[in-house]
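Handout, section 3.2

Students often ask what a structure token actually looks like in practice. Rather than define it abstractly, here is a full record for Aminoglycoside phosphotransferase domain-containing protein. The first block is the sequence as you would receive it.
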Amino acid sequence: MSLENPFVALEPAIIAACANHEKDNHAVLGYRRLILFANYIIKFGDSWCFSSEVQTHDHFAKVTEKDPTAPRVALIHHIFKHEHLTFAIIEPVQTVQVAEDVFVQKVADAVLWMRSQPCPASVALGPLGSGPAWHEIFEGHCAPLPFTSVIALENFLNVAVSKRKRRRKDLVDISISGERLTLTQSDMHRSNFGIDATGRVVIFDFGQIGWLPESLANYTLLSNRAFTFELAARVFGDRLDSVRASSNLASLGQVRVLLWTGANSTLGLDKDGNPISKDNSSMVASL
């Protein structure tokens, strides 16, 4: 046991508390793997995806801690693994109510700050680590494949577009391979932001934050929800009409329709965006 890290001693009790929470609530609609423990927030999840969320969260908590002009991100005090789960002990952040106009402007500032963050060379798409990319066009919001490049994703999207062209002859292929990767909150719900007592905007929940091509980032802000409608006007300013007119956005909307209405989630492609041969697909099916 580490004498330098007092949080190590809490691990067994946290594991037990989370197991009880899971047992009592896993069937409840809207259940989340999150509990209050002592004076901390505990989040936990399957390591294959949650470890990337924690890694991304922890990275930006450290970045923003050194820059008071940046949005605030709650500090992670301790991260540990047990069996197939990863656990994070997170500082609680108290938020205050502010006028709606102030709230929307501060969230817009946070979105612009996120868009200014460079994509690390180690990231092909999505969060830090090896976790999947997230976006609302994907069924369940989770990318069906661990795409190895933007070109692989572009190929996947255009297979979907080709299927929708049978109904929508006006659709054009999606072009994203030349776009910069943009740090994006794919779940643009107001509950994922707050304002602390000092007036600093807070970014909550890194579950669907990662780097995506700019067209996909723009799509998240151009829904018909009142919150994102107001947000988009402040993020894009005079460019709003031209951004909204992008043919990529219209085609992405049709991709979403296809993927959420029972299509084969991988569209017969591999992670590199190439068609899977019948021999390979038979081999996969037999494993």
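Discussion prompt for tutorial groups: The chain has nine helices and eight strands. How would you have guessed this from the sequence alone?
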